[in-house]
Design brief:
Blueprint lengths: L25 E2 L5 E2 L1 E5 L28 H15 L3 E5 L9 H9 L6 E6 L4 H11 L3 E5 L5 H8 L4 H13 L5 E6 L9 H11 L2 E5 L18 H8 L5 E3 L10 E5 L5 E5 L12 E4 L4 E3 L8 E2 L1 H4 L10 H13 L19 H4 L2
Parallel strand pairs: 3-4, 3-12, 4-5, 5-6, 6-7, 7-8, 8-11
Antiparallel strand pairs: 1-2, 9-10, 10-11, 12-13, 13-14
Helix pairs in contact: 1-2, 1-9, 2-3, 3-5
């Protein structure tokens, strides 16, 4: 049996045995426990980012195939009450397109123990909803913004909406959401030369920039590792203007390696999912908008919970405990790593917009 760069055995393709111990949490065979739940509320998006989807968009999932408000609330309650989830992040697609988002946030915020609640959004419409979401219980927010240059932003997103995003960011700050993090993906010879301007903007506004290596999750399956800007290159680009030193604070399960900018306290994060994987410390589990559990962003398999919620399984009266058990089993079979470096790696059939960040 071979080993991964993480020092964990490579088990892709091996059928797991049913040896899960009796434990309430979302544990796996490698000593990890998932306490961070990422919930995709929709696969729809009002941008058409070049690294995510084609200009014409995708075939969106029909509304009746998405989890309803009541179904989402039930799964959120099971996750917190029965499975030990401590953090909930609402994602998409674009989560602001779900009209029931404030209701879902309020529901999660009323649970005991209360989970921390965050949101990942492209920022369109945030200026209208920031205060409402903060009042409902959102603690912190991540906004996708790949460039502070209007023309470059429009070229990447295929929409001239930079001013709307910047207005939304100001509204989020006024609403008291903190921290506000900016998520950016660098594309070679498109926005990489402007990353210094983006960092300086974040430093002026009090936001924390997080740069994410482009991952093989595009709808067209055109990702090429050779074209990706690596974490090492990102560090070099940022270092042209600022002195970066590793944040001494323990990273824990956080996906970003934080670097103090010019001695701090301001920082920038780099998420090197491809070149410097952090799978060994992963504490995340994902729920798609159509009710599937994904143990990993790059998982090749999903576990259907919607059929249990809707009484479509063999047992038409599935209880919360049975749903929780199915969820636990899904996490027990989680692979040790994402396997991008494995010659047998296959890009997930679903694009990022359908999986959720």
């Amino acid at each position: 049996m071979s080993s991964t760069a993480l020092g964990l055995p490579t088990l892709r393709g091996v059928t797991p045995v049913s040896d899960r111990p009796d434990a309430d949490g979302l544990i796996d065979r490698f000593g990890r426990t998932a306490t961070d739940l990422r919930i995709s509320l929709t696969d729809r998006c009002n941008l058409r980012c070049t690294y995510c989807m084609p200009a014409e968009g995708l075939d969106w999932q029909p509304a009746d195939q998405l989890l309803s408000t009541a179904e989402l609330q039930r799964l959120i309650r099971i996750a917190v009450d029965d499975l030990g989830v401590e953090e909930i992040r609402f994602t998409g697609g674009e989560p602001l397109l779900r009209a029931d988002l404030p209701e879902l946030v309020s529901f999660a915020a009323a649970l005991h123990p209360r989970p921390s609640i965050s949101l990942t959004t492209n920022g369109l419409g945030l200026h209208r909803k920031a205060h409402l979401l903060a009042d409902a219980g959102v603690d912190r927010i991540n906004v996708s913004l790949d460039s502070i240059d209007r023309d470059v932003y429009a070229a990447i997103t295929r929409r001239d909406r930079l001013d709307d995003v910047l207005t939304g960011l100001r509204a989020a700050r006024e609403a008291g959401l903190h921290p506000i993090k900016i998520n950016a993906v660098l594309i070679r010879e498109v926005n990489d030369s402007g990353v210094g301007d983006l960092l300086d903007y974040c430093l002026r506004e009090g936001f924390e920039l997080r740069i994410i290596e482009q991952m093989p999750l595009d709808a067209g399956h055109r990702w090429q590792r050779s074209e990706m800007i690596t974490a090492a290159e990102i560090h070099s680009l940022l270092g042209e203007r600022h002195d970066l030193t590793v944040d001494p604070t323990p990273r824990g399960a956080a996906p970003a390696q934080r670097w103090l900018v010019d001695g701090g306290p301001a920082a920038v994060g780099v998420i090197a999912s491809v070149t410097e994987p952090f799978c060994g410390d992963c504490d995340r589990v994902r729920l798609t908008a159509d009710g599937r559990v994904r143990s990993c962003l790059f998982a090749g398999e999903e576990t259907d919970l919607m059929s249990l919620l809707r009484g479509l399984s063999q047992n038409a009266a599935d209880t919360d405990s049975e749903i929780a058990a199915r969820w636990r089993d899904a996490m027990w079979t989680k692979q040790p790593g994402h396997g991008i470096d494995d010659p047998a790696f296959l890009q997930p059939a679903r694009p990022m917009s359908a999986i959720g960040g």
